[in-house]
Design a protein that fits this description.
By secondary structure, this protein is an alpha/beta fold. Helices cover 32% and strands 31% of the residues. A hairpin with an 8-residue loop joins strand 2 and strand 3 (59-66). The termini are far apart. This is Ger(X)C family spore germination protein.
């Protein structure tokens, strides 16, 4: 009897086994990109790794047109004898025009429903997804999917990106009072793709962009563990003279440049009322470079330098905040902070959008020089 039971169990287990997959028959997708054509038609481009010893190339790029991602996938399958698998898909690229015109949420919804695709897959924006994937000016990686993955992965590990994966983007997209961002991949002729900036979204559509360096003003209030990046501040010589700083023997037209390395920081969104907000932040830094070279040793000069740097950062931050208000995008999450206060929790997404452009926002960044590097 025991033998019969064991035999039946073994037969059942065999019946439940997944179908055999032969590695030589697999086309492993590492990156897919979508371009907007016209009349609601899209082009999908995919890079496949293949391990068939009969094939000369280890990777191949395929493109197909369709009205949905599933239709594009079906047409891509028709172009190869390999089974296209998504288990190693690491990056999805979206054409900038597509993201600005029709949005990307419908494509992301499909990706979310595919159990073989990780929620940590990278998302990025580029001018032309097909051209970016077909770029051959990359480094030692076997194909473009691997290169772009390593590029984005490096920046994410260094906490230089705000939103970069599917999970972060979707979470921010559907949260009231904050808008997502995505890295922009630049695909210039003759060079490998690089991160050129960060796309600003209003809901699921691009409305503008910001430089990667200037995302420090977003990270101050959204991620207290992110790397802000080294900061270069430019101060007019006449401003130094007004504060009685050490003479630098520069003409009136010249400026004084300081490069700073953030050690730690803390940001806080202070809601005075639904119409008035303070963005308070403190940044402790070490100085890396002075141009022209000088020494700031006494406490009085150091204090004045801290004030000048703070004023320069606040001036730039005010300009960026005005741009964000004009675009009606809120990557800092000011609306989310307003809604977190009980008496304002009834405000809807529409209420926050309507009030955002008229919102009075006062930045208040204070800088403390903890170390003066090699200057001393």
């Amino acid at each position: 009897m025991k033998k019969i039971v064991i035999l039946l169990c073994s037969l059942l287990c065999t019946a439940c086994m997944a179908p055999e997959k032969i590695i030589e028959m697999q086309g492993i997708s590492t990156i897919i990109g979508f371009d907007f054509l016209d009349d609601n038609t899209f082009k999908g481009t995919i890079s496949l790794l293949q391990f068939d010893r009969k094939e000369e190339n280890t990777s191949v790029t395929l493109s197909a047109e369709g009205t949905t991602s599933k239709q594009i996938r079906q047409k891509l399958e028709e172009q190869t004898s390999h089974d296209i698998t998504s288990g190693q898909l690491r990056t999805i690229l979206f054409n900038k025009n597509m993201a600005a015109t029709v949005g990307i949420s419908s494509f992301l919804d499909t990706m979310q429903r595919d159990s073989s695709i990780s929620s940590l897959i990278f998302l990025a924006i580029t001018d032309n997804a097909e051209e970016t994937i077909n770029n051959t000016n990359y480094e030692e990686y076997p194909e473009m999917g691997s290169y772009i993955y390593q590029l984005l992965d490096k920046h994410e590990k260094k906490e230089m990106l705000v939103n970069s994966n599917l999970h972060d983007f979707i979470t921010t997209l559907y949260e009231i009072g904050i808008d997502p961002t995505l890295p922009i991949i630049n695909n210039a002729n003759g060079v490998a793709p690089s991160i050129d900036g960060v796309a600003l979204f209003k809901e699921d559509k691009i409305v503008g962009s910001i430089s990667l360096i200037n995302t420090l003003y977003i990270k101050l209030f959204t991620n207290n563990k992110a790397f802000l990046g080294d900061i270069t501040v430019e101060i007019a010589t006449e401003e130094l003279e007004k504060r009685g700083m050490a003479e630098l023997n520069l003409s009136k037209s010249d400026s004084y440049k300081i490069t700073l390395h953030p050690i730690k920081y803390k940001g806080n969104i202070e809601i005075k009322n639904p119409e008035f907000v303070h963005l308070n932040a403190t940044i402790s830094v070490s100085t890396l470079e002075f141009q022209p070279s000088t020494s700031v040793k006494n406490k009085d000069s150091l204090k004045k330098m801290e004030q000048l740097i703070g004023e320069a950062l606040n001036k730039e931050f005010r300009y960026i905040l005005e741009e964000l208000k004009n675009l009606n995008t809120d990557p800092i999450g000011i609306g989310r902070k307003i809604r977190s206060i009980r008496k304002y929790s009834h405000l809807t997404e529409g209420d926050l959008r309507q009030n955002y452009s008229a919102l009075k926002i006062k930045p208040n960044i204070q800088v403390e020089i903890k170390r003066t590097g090699l200057v001393d």
